[in-house]
Amino acid sequence: MKVIVTGVTGMVGEGVMHECLLDSSIEEVLVVGRRPSGFSHPKLKELVAPDMFDLSAIESNLSGYDACYFCLGVSSIGMSEEDYRHITYDLTMNFAKTLLSRNPAMSFCYVSGKSTDGSENGKLMWARVKGKTENDLIKLGFKQAFAFRPGIMEPTLGLKNTLKGYKFLSWLIPILRVIYPSGISTLAAVGRAMINVTRHGYPKQVMEVADIKAAASNE
User: Fold this and answer.
1) Residues 146-156 pLDDT 10s
2) Which of 18, 86, 138, 193 could anchor a disulfide with 216, C-beta 3.0 to 4.6 Å?
3) Which backbone phi and psi does 58 adopt, to 5 degrees?
């Protein structure tokens, strides 16, 4: 397979990229981002798009891919709904539509978040926006489209973009595995699950933590 990964300068994107680079069935990983990632690997290619809303300069290089693992995202803290929607919904849909026009048989995996509001009518602004993004991506026409809703993710050791909060709270992970199993997985499992649903499909398009764990083990 040849796959595209976004958001590799963040924790989730780097973790997903890491799993793709380890997987012998993936021959090429193309990372797309606003700035150079700083990563190097024989299977890795990179395209820089300073304005992710304008892909015209790189669009011709986005053909021939089997999957996109879209891990780009921002926190809603301190943002208006209009601004958050623009970055979260508009940017994602623009990227997805561009890829679909070039790769009609592509699978698309979108990193959403636990407690996302699929009804689009709840009280939490971020959850409504994420819910609309999930819903519209699934309806867009990809061969397969999945919304991933990871909760707490145990970091992959050795990666450089692990969030500081995870580093400070690493001692809590074993406890959370016992008392909150429905809300915790590993970052590696998220990456493995994306690869496996691309290969084998999955009966649900909205994937909660339990689904991510199940798909990750379905080699």
Assistant:
1) 999 998 899 99
2) 193
3) -115, -5
Q: Any idea which residue has 């053909």 for tokens? A: 63
The β-bridge partners of 67 are 3, 107
Instruction: Look at the alpha carbons of 156, 40, 19, 48 in this order and tell me if their dihedral is positive or negative.
Output: positive
Count the helix, strand and coil residues of the chain and give each as a percent rounded to the nearest 5. Answer: 40, 15, 40
End-to-end Cα distance, the chain: 15
The tens digit of pLDDT for each residue in 78-111 reads: 999 999 999 999 999 999 999 999 999 999 999 9
Q: How many CB atoms lie within 10 A of CB 86?
A: 14
Return the closest-CA partner of residue 133 out of 190, 95, 85, 170.
Answer: 85
d(CA 209, CA 191): 13
**Amino acid residing at 194:** M
- In degrees, rounded to 5, the angle at the alpha carbon of residue 179 between the alpha carbons of residues 186 and 161 is 30
Using DSSP, state whether 164 is helix, strand or coil: helix
Distance between CA atoms of residues 139 and 148, nearest Å: 15
44, 35, 46, 28: which is closest to 10 by C-alpha? 35
Is residue 62 within 8 A of residue 101, CB to CB? The reply is no
Structure tokens at 177: 């595995």
